[in-house]
Structures
1.
Amino acid sequence: MNARDAIFAAIRKARPGSEGPAAIESQARACSEAMKAALPTPESDDLAALFMARAGAEKVGATLERVVSLADLPKAVALYVEANGLGPDCSLQPDPRLQQLNWGALRPGAPLRPDSALAVGIALCGVAETGSLVFHSGPSAPTLYEFLPLHHLVALDAQTLLPRLEDYPAFVRGLAVPRNVNFVTGASGTTDIEGVLARGAHGPGRLHIVIFN
């Protein structure tokens, strides 16, 4: 008998254990608690400050600012547009929270294209430990908003900041999680060619995050 046959023979002879559903659930809970106990303590209790330090690091390449509320987002976008010499046209993620804001002189109805200069969106949550944004695809959050524009400006609710990546499963428990989930850490960049950092190789070359409370 060769090794392959021996393995399959062992599988065929295997018998289910005697543990019932309650015992299996208890074992799973114990494993979960052991995993939590092994996680490092966050470096700071101020998750927003920790997130900003991580996402704003030179290697990550995002720029950030804080505002009082989501209602301040249009003003932040207008200032970003002016500072970067962009036009008033931008593509707005079809999220009702963004659609109902007063965009003033900005024109947020531009269709999203591969050459779009600016898209404005909102993240599901953020991970403070890594400075990552989390996006769930759906009718109000098309995936291409994270990949097509040159400039991606993202609103992030400080109340949705998670200490660590391992806290994400608990955050989405009870939600309908789509097949497409994206964790975005900073602006797109690569050093594949001669070790020289090039921005915008696989997505937006500029990422600006507006954290609101």
2.
Amino acid sequence: MPAMPTTENEEAQPESEITLDLLDAVHANETHSQRTLAAELGIALGLTNAYLKRCIRKGWIKATQAPANRYAYYLTPKGFSEKSRLTSQYLSRSLKFYRQARNQMDGLLGATAAVGWRRVVLIGRGDLAEITLLCAMQHSVDIVGVVDPEAAEGAQFMQKPVVADLASLHPFDVAMLTDFAAPQRTWERYLGAVPAGRFLAPKLLKIEPAGGESRQ
């Protein structure tokens, strides 16, 4: 497959997940154009074309001529089988992620509570933040809010305030990285805004620390 520019969403998605999303989209609507498929998948048009060609070559998708010089795409029996296989694989991976995330965030929250750090900020909104909020119920900590640079005024996430500016959540004792989309970029962005040793990240995010900061 030729190298192509990627978006942040593409960087976060493994190849099998993009393939599954494509098969799901074609199954749901056979009248999709490549442009509408690209929009639904959140990836570049050129990359969508490359994945379509690959799926056609493997016999998972068939393209037929449609009016106005367009193509209709539909799943073949092999495509249905592959979609089922990838769905099972994705669910298994998701369950493994949940268990790993729950164990690691539970460990981080327990450690912060043990040293008396009670006021916790989460940096990043999404699945990992949700798991962390659920784990926090088992510890003597208070999640004071979630940071998301694109947050609208007054936004909430699981009944916690979501803010665009970390400074608006001061004072806090510790910040935890919960951004799963672009964790290294987010880590580096906020590293200087959190006191040394009080910006924590779970191992599953595979952060490369800088400046002596901590991570589990």
3.
Amino acid sequence: MAQPAGDFDASRYFRGSGDLGFYNVGTSVMRGLARSIHMKYRDVWTVDDALAFAETLIADRHLEVKSVGIEVLARYRREFGPALLPIWKRWLARNLSANWATTDAMCGALIGPLMVAHPGLGPRLRVWSRDRNMWVRRASIVGLIPRARKGESLDLVYEIAKRLHADREDLIQKAVGWGLREAGKTDPARLERYLRANGASIPRTTLRYAIERFPEATRRTLLVATRKSQGSTFKSQVSRLKSQSSRSKKADED
């Protein structure tokens, strides 16, 4: 199924993904292959068999191979249970996802459906947001998007977003913006209040992603309002430093 890459340099699109390989096979082809595998073995395999299959493929260096494993396992979502979550976290922590696309596929096809079926697992992602591994941190919020789209777990989405605002990785900043945007679809007023209240701590990349679904006039207003908030914070810090310096100088004179 492999195709010539042509002029497209996938490694630039998936920067920072190490030794990631590509067969240049389209998404529809991969999903068709996953569907045919499932059709062949659906009367024989359990979710544990599908998990073993996916665990073998996720370790392959090629993006498309990882994707087929995820797609096959996703077809057993009705049998997903809480015991799968630590296994998927291990895949992320060991860099088996290796890139944002595979991480997001895991979140959309595996972690997200598990969160929908077992909402009590959601708080575990709070811990993921502090993990040293970037893919685990990204999954901490992207894994909640299926629930956010239903207007569920919004408190947790906002809490994790706030935890991640200080993260310097742009792939985290974009993911947080994406999560906030999805949360805002069911309650835009809450998202606007959150952005105004936390503008000083929100990276501009996150902010721009978060406001994409607002009307243009609201987007412009929020961009200005949060920038002013950042400026006010800076002025406040300068004023505080000047005050401390003045007190120190007076103490020296005394």
4.
Amino acid sequence: MIGITHFETFLIAGILLNITPGNDTIFILTRSIAHGQKAGIMSVLGISTGSLIHTIFAALGLSIIVAQSVLLFHLLKYAGAAYLLYMGYKMLTEKTLLNTERAAAVKTNDHLRIYKDGVFTNVLNPKVALFFIAFLPQFIDPTVKNTVWPFLVLGITFTITGALWCLFLAIFASGIFAKLKENKQISGYINKICGAVFIGLGLKVAI
């Protein structure tokens, strides 16, 4: 493949990295368990969109600017942490029970909000930007003058394999939602638990 070396190795390494649990995985699982399969799928699409944005940034060299600027790095870091804390607070204070009525009442706007949450949490994570500019170049031919195309191919490949794995997780987690939504005693605590997880993620990112 033009401009790309050891693509098979990259594919295997990418899959292994994608199935390693991280912040994105937790985000998708919590959304799927708290709001069902459609919400889980929208969260996967949001995370994948964020990954594609990072791919474009890395291809154009913008991620290198972030990596070299301590100020920009920390601004993105704390913005991402604040957003996670905000989502956690919203879920902790939401009074609606996780039941059949709530699942049926979820509107398109709610799914769009979940999609945007996925995009923001991924884009505002500077560690993802650093990952792309550190990992992808290992599989780009150093003799190639124009690295934009190889960056895009590798980034899109990584995003697709990650999306497939995350869709599996979303469907699996939404099965838990389907079993719990009828139990009001348990379902009343689901949002609280998920909210606490987001707050924990926010603190983890900030620290």
